[in-house]
Amino acid sequence: CLSTRRGASRPTIRLVALVVFLHSFINSAQIQRGLGASRIFLRGASDMSSTHAKMKPTTKSLRVTLRRSKRLLTHGSKRKSSGNTPLKPQVPPKHARFSRSQSQKVPRNFQEKKAIEIDGQNFWKIPKDFSLAQSVCSYGYFALAPNRWTPAPHGEDEDRGKLSRPFRYANEKVVWATIRQSGSRSSLPESPPNLHITLHAPHELAIHEIQEVMDGVGRMLRVQMCVKGFHEVCPEAKDRGFGRTFRSPCLWEDMVKTITNCNMKWSGTVRMNHLLCTHVGKNGAFPTPKEVLKHKAQWLQENCKLGYRAERIRRLAACVEGIEGMEKLDLQWFEASDRKREEAFERIIKLYGFGKFAAHNVCQLLGYHESFPFDSETVRHFKEHHKASSKAKFTDIEKLARKHYSTFAPYQFLAYWFELWTAYEKRRGSTSTRWTVRGNQTESSGFFDVSKPRSKR
DNA sequence: CTCACTCCAGCTTTCAACTC
DNA sequence: GAGTTGAAAGCTGGAGTGAG
Length: 457
Hints:
By secondary structure, the chain is α+β, with helices and mostly antiparallel strands. It has 19 helices and 5 strands.
């Protein structure tokens, strides 16, 4: 590489080579002494390599290392970049399975106290076009733990479905909430949509604690979002009440879910979130940053199957808490109504582990609907539904997609997602409001998976 | 020469398909 | 059944490029 570098004179090459030699000498000496501190200087030292530097070589890691060494010996460095791998047209994921969920009962440890019934109208002015089923079943995160969606019985209005999950309040405490809807768009004006929330808490709740939980519910369902503007540019979405895409009760959960969404097929994302809630979060709730920080990255890797994401999630938690030498990340700053998308994007992309896709995804979750999380799914979608050339590159399709959705500005993401989501439904032959994840979310393959099936070898 | 930007190789993990 | 291979995902950071 050095010899091909423009303008690199021979003395420069010698000097750099000497530095590299000295560095590798110091590095190996430190590793031998068990220090490993030099890993911060390693070229391209990823979070994984740094983590592995500290790890004991397990049988598995040893096997993988040997396998790689063997491959290098036999194939040299011919490893293909995944970015250049031509995408084959994706066939509908027939292997994906959906089923009615198991009975979504309130867990036993939340049943002890009397339930608190809350009328949604006391907290929000619920729009007349609101639909619980459409709000929930509009983004894949509804299928991730700790969310549980129970679809309405067949033959009944889709809005008779219910959403249950544990919510965090007062930092560490957990309350179990079940959200139902009465009335609907179709029963106007006699019976406008309203939300009814049942809370099961281990003790009496103060008003401000209930308010905290309701803020989370409102955020998840985007209850107070006005979708009129989007429906004007996309009338098909109005017909079905689509536009309030589902998200988490807090930005922290959205950010972690985005990290688990990267470099992983959907079933893997489902499993990671399930294990995080089972092993790290209190009472099956989504873990708080503090709970994540109780564990080392290696522990999270092994117990939650997070892989290299463990270090990224841990660092994000340290940022949120402002500890371990991290500059404190104020999550409320992102939620400010006068915040500009560019400001938020710039701050997110500076965070370790957040690239372009992840930063755009967090932006759209924050409500910046012009943000466009462009990924391999967009490429597949454009090749399948917009007659993009099968040879078109990632960047070509990105330009094509930006141009295509510019007519929906400032709702590019919603238009894109509506198109993609309805294509998923068409492929599956059922509406998303009837989808759910089976009771046991640890199953690694199958349900709710829209990733590309492997071609026969 | 510096800066800002783009490009892309290499990274890690998982899992289905394949081979022995 | 155990082991191996290859494909897939998005992020990181070094290399390359062009403008000033």
